[in-house]
Amino acid sequence: METILHFIQVNLQMFYVVILSIFLGIEVISRVPSVLHTPLMSGANAIHGVIIIGSIIAIGSVRQDNYLALILGFIAVIVGTLNVVGGFVVTDRMLEMFKSRKGNK
Amino acid sequence: METNILSVCYLLGSISFIVGLKMLSHPETARKGNQVSAAGMGIAILGTLLLYRTPDGRHLHNYGWIAGALVTGGVIGTRAARKVKMTAMPEMVSIFNGMGGLCAALISTLEFGRLAGGVAFLHPLMILAGAVIGSISFSGSMIAYGKLSGKVKDHAFPGQQVVNLVMLAAIILLSAGLLSGPAGSLAAIFYIILALSLCYGVLFVAPIGGADMPVVISFLNSLTGMATAFAGFLYKNPVMLTGGILVGSAGAILTLLMCKAMNRSLKNVLIGSFGGDKTASAPGKQGTYKEIGLSDAAMVLGYAHKVMIVPGYGLAVAQAQHTCHELEKLLADKGTEVKYAIHPVAGRMPGHMNVLLAEANVSYDDLLETDQSNEQFPDTDVVLVLGANDVVNPAAENDPSSPIYGMPILQVGKAKMVIVNKRSMRPGYAGIDNQLFFQPNTSMLFGDAKEVLRQLIHQIKAL
User: Fold this and answer.
1) Can you give the residue range of the structural domain that contains A61?
2) Are residues A40 and A27 both part of a single domain?
3) Which residues, numbered 25 to 64 in chain A, qualify as contacts with chain B under a Cβ-Cβ cut-off of 8 Å?
4) Do A52 and A80 sit in the same domain of this protein?
5) Facing A39 at nearest CB: one of B24, B45, B221
């Protein structure tokens, strides 16, 4: 019990961020027209690719001679990059095609 | 100083994600929104590479490995994303999502190996949560990909729900055991948990029918967001935290919205029970249906005042969205009012059909949502249903025993005349009969959507 209270106390800012982000996510998405659901899912998918930062930190702080960890980290950074780059490029390709008649002709 | 700059980078990253998601919610700003998020991501990654310091104040090292991985991933990711066909988009999103999950699981594995004894109870908890959620998301996404691309069939065995629940319980119990023991010990238990989570992801998605795949992908997307957030907590990294939680909560809401649109309870999808009870749908009474010839169909369309097109997955499979747009232009030039009625789950993901039509240059002003369409059907002369089935099935409104009962549908039957283009009389994705085909104002026009549309254009030009 005390551990948990202490943990909350130490990470109070984090908890604020978590709670506010939850509501922000709900708020932002509930206004999206169904036209954009697929690009939105894809865009959100690219955003959680921010996990790549974790993989960079992880591989960047292991010892140089710990090859098992290096290989695990190496794969982690590759798949993280796939998530980020692939996600944003696919989303961009989709949205490139959304044109309004007003804007287009 | 450096740490302060890095904090600003992370702040910019977080803001760009929020602004980007917000801009993604309007068609005119959507593309910019995506670019804003991407730019923010770039700043956050660059900042980490150049400025990050570990808790004991050292810079990162192993840059050779990092650069190699970034380049490899970047090249493969860009090529895959550029090459993929628009119809295969759901598969691609599923793969990229799985990669994020795998990344989270790998980070956790790495960090578990580095856990020193005597670390607080909550540190391993974050690691375990990331490992379990990341693994489920990874293996689940891979199965979802296999299903969407037709490589994996639905699998269900008796008692599967019980097995799933037992596995979930085992994962939770083992995790509790691991956490109550001394930190960093008992690596074997950690790997068993990892393996169980991977299996759970497979078993969780395997029995779910193809029609439910959009919900599943959205759910897994939300899971990966949560895994990212746990990793963010682990590293006390604000940008990972905001990004992860945003996607986690947004994905959860999107999942619920989709469940609602398809009239499934999230519980059923989660336990993986839907695909199993296909026997429930009794074979409906077969009536007689009317066929219409190409030239008659062309005549009807050519002289109509108002035409609504209802596209479905059949249109996408036939790659006929461009031909469809041609027909629409031809009719519009003749003075006919042409609109598209788009059901939220037309295609294989919500909004998938909109993307496909956008690819063919159809203006989104002409795309109507379900409610708007249903208001306009009564004064529509001809409705042209192209490869859609379940989304126009009246059983959803008047047959309580139907598995899709309660799903909002496009009420095409209200129009003066309905022409349904299908390849055959085979039932649709949900595997149920469609009474619409036997109604007196419905005529069937059999054939491949692209070929039929081409012929129609030819005939209408000749009128």
Assistant:
1) 35-96
2) no
3) 25-26, 28-62, 64
4) yes
5) B24
Residue from the list A31, A90, A97 with its beta carbon closest to the beta carbon of B81 = A90
Are A55 and A78 contained in the same domain? yes
Chain A interface mutation, best of B31, B34, B75, B370, highest count of A Cβ atoms under 10 Å: B34
Dump pLDDT digits (tens) for B11-37. 999 999 999 988 988 878 889 999 999
**Whether A12 contacts chain B with CB within 8 A:** no
In sign, the C-alpha dihedral spanning B93, A78, A68, B105 is: negative
Q: State ipTM.
A: 0.91
Q: Are residues A47 and A78 both part of a single domain?
A: yes
CA–CA separation, B90 and B85 (whole Å): 10
Q: Taking a C-beta distance cutoff of 8 angstroms, is the pair B140, B205 a contact?
A: yes
Burial state string for B255-283 with b = 16 or more CB within 10 A and e = fewer than 16: bbbbbebbebeeeebebbbbbbeeeebee
Selected residue of B28, B62, B139, B356 to mutate for chain A interface (largest A Cβ count, 10 A): B62
The reply to whether A27 and A40 lie within a common domain is: no
Structure tokens at A82: 């796939």
**Across the interface, do A38 and B89 touch by the CB < 8 Å criterion?**
yes
Q: What is the pTM of this model?
A: 0.82
Q: Note the pLDDT tens digit of each residue in A9-43.
A: 888 888 898 999 999 888 887 767 766 778 888 99
Percent of chain A with pLDDT over 70: 90
For chains A and B, CB pairs below 8 A equal 375
**Interface contact A4, partner B, CB < 8 A:** yes
**pLDDT tens digits for range B403-416:** 777 778 899 989 99
CA B401, B402, B404, B410 dihedral sign is negative
Contact present, B386 and B324 (Cβ < 8 Å): yes
* pLDDT of res. B328: 92
User: B403: Cβ–Cβ under 8 A, 6 or more apart, which residues?
Assistant: B280, B281, B430, B432
- Look at residue A65 and tell me whether its pLDDT is greater than 50: yes
- Mean pLDDT confidence for B349-356: 79
**Which residue, among B340, B412, B342, B421, has the nearest Cα to B377 in the 3D structure?**
B412
Which residues of chain A does B93 touch, with a Cβ-Cβ cutoff of 8 Å? 38, 41-42, 45, 87, 90
A69 and A83 within one domain? yes
Cα B123 to Cα B218, B232, B271, B321, distances in angstroms: 28, 12, 30, 52
Question: Could you tell me if A6 and A50 lie in one domain?
Answer: no
For residues A25 and A41, membership in a common domain is answered with no
